[in-house]
Amino acid sequence: YQDLPEKYWKKYQYATKFVQLIKSKTPKVTLYTKYAKVMLMENTPNADLEVCFYDGAKTHKTSELVRVVEKSGKSYTVKGEVGLSGLSPESRMYVELSEEGYSMCLSLEAAITAEEQRSTKKVPFFPITIGRRPASSDSPSTVPAPSQQLHPDAASPPKPPQITPSMISYDGSDFTTASLNKKCPPTQQEVVQNTGKVVKSIFVPNVGWASQLTSGEVWVQFNDGSQLVVQAGVSCITYTSPEGRITRYKENEKLPEH
Description:
Elements lengths: L8 H15 L3 E6 L3 E6 L7 E5 L4 E4 L4 E4 L5 E4 L1 H5 L4 H30 L9 E3 L43 H10 L2 H10 L2 E7 L3 E6 L3 E6 L4 E5 L4 E5 L5 E5 L8
């Protein structure tokens, strides 16, 4: 789309940012280990990783930062190996287990991608979930390494953690779609009905809403009432004007001036 006049670039840039943002919050590989649910996101390369430990702790790894939330609720954000050295032993343990899960997810992604490319049926293998949460979940903090000694307070069981849904990997529902339909004008309802249910939505101030649909499309609703529907890997964009007129544009075709 670089052949378009510069005044048309802004909406394409917003749409691209929305796609990348949603990919960074959409699990591609989900792996259940002994201690945690590990999720490798779709924003490859250098995909984000979210790990939700069964004891309530969480980690979130990006290409630049690592954020650790201990089961007590304390959170730390560090950058690089120097930052990791300043973490508590408990937080370092969560980071180490997360790195192990990250390596396993990358290996699984590579192996499954190879099989997907060899498949003649052209059926997507992702997203994929491997394993299930154990019936009895151990806290990693209760299984120290041989060289570690438990503090006396660690012998008593921790209080039940107050676990809140992760905003990083929030999954939508029929309720989400129904609520959205009630607020949408007819043209917006048509987009939802024709392309699939809403999986998740993200609001960006001064821009509008971006929603990922079950069909894989990204639906962008701008504050001026116009909309874009973008399908990853397809050089075609569906544009809906504020008046409700729907037009499909192929690569190098001009969008209206809105």
